[in-house]
Amino acid sequence: MARAGITADRLVAAAAELADEVGFEQVSLSALARRFGVKDASLYSHVRNLQDLRHRIALLAGGEMIDRIAVAVAGRSGRDALAAYADAYRAYALAHPGRYAATQIRIDPAFVDTDAPAMRRTVEITYGMLRGYGLAEPDLTDAVRLLRATFHGYCALEACGGFNAPRDVRASWERAVDALHIALENWPREETDHHV
Questions:
Q1: 93-116 pLDDT, tens per residue?
Q2: Over residues 32-38, mean pLDDT
Q3: Contact indicator for 62, 148 with CB cutoff of 8 Å
């Protein structure tokens, strides 16, 4: 029977697959119920509503993504770590467009524990890689925002075919990573000691 064995984890995994197939914004409880051959109402014993489901997809995808990044950066530092991080990020974003889109939503603490292991791991790995450049707060936060904006913007444009010039997209990506490395090595430190 189709409904046997439905769990919250199975629902979220199926929803993540659906997101990659049809787009994150197109995921619905009705479409998911059809996949399992059940009525929509039967899903509410596993997830509260669509927003809850979307937050769970985001956490699943974020965990998958940071696991791949962690493997890529292990034992590396400096430019090598940055390039490995960037390449793993881009590979995940392009291979799993729906899941990746889920990682960009704002997590509502009313629905999901914002101290979830995947979120903590993302902070630890990302900030750890950036500390290798000698950065501390508030520069760490600023650097994270620069990397996220650059990686996301590049991946979003690449995914929708937004780069039309004949230059190889991978070559431009590598140059962008080189530029980020130079920026991180020469980060303009926020001055905390003001002399009159």
A1: 999 999 999 999 998 777 666 678
A2: 94
A3: no
Distance in angstroms (rounded) separating the CA atoms of residues 58 and 64: 10
CB distance 181 to 79 below 8 Å: yes
- Phi and psi of 191, rounded to 5°? -80, 130
Q: Please report the DSSP string for 7-27 in residue order.
A: -HHHHHHHHHHHHHHH-GGG-
**pTM for the full model?**
0.91
pLDDT, mean over the chain: 92
CA distance 118 to 68: 12
Cite the DSSP H helix spans in 45-186: 50-73, 78-95, 97-102, 117-131, 139-159, 169-185
8-22 and 29-36 helices cross at what angle (nearest 10)?
A: 110
Residue bearing tokens 């399992």: 36
- Residue 34 has a pLDDT of 95
pLDDT given for residue 111 in this prediction = 66
Nearest alpha-carbon partner for 58 in 90, 94, 27: 27
pLDDT at 110: 74
- How far is it, in rounded angstroms, from Cα 148 to Cα 196? 36
Distance in angstroms (rounded) separating the CA atoms of residues 42 and 49: 11
Using DSSP, state whether 32 is helix, strand or coil: helix
33: left (phi over 0), alpha (psi -120 to 50) or beta: alpha
Q: What integer is the mean pLDDT of 9-13?
A: 96
